[in-house]
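Researcher: Here's a chain I'd like modeled. Treat it as a single chain, no partners, no ligands.
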Amino acid sequence: MQLGRVKGKATSTIKHPTFQGERLLIVQLETETGRPDGEPILVFDRLGAGAGDRVICTNDGRALQDLLGPTTPGRWSVLGLPDR
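Model: Modeled as a single isolated chain. Structure tokens:
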């Protein structure tokens, strides 16, 4: 799990079938001090996070496969929204 900040949402006209109807966010992962950690990533979101929100992200592929199906190529998902 890692904290990140939502930079915006991603829109795609062509996508993997398991991505249909799912919300994709662009998230900048952060270090424990709040500094950027690598390049932004695409994250699946079912919790309703918006631009500027902090999110707890997980790259647990099994959890995402449980949500989207066993053939999904997705990797990251929003696990929670931390208290302010």
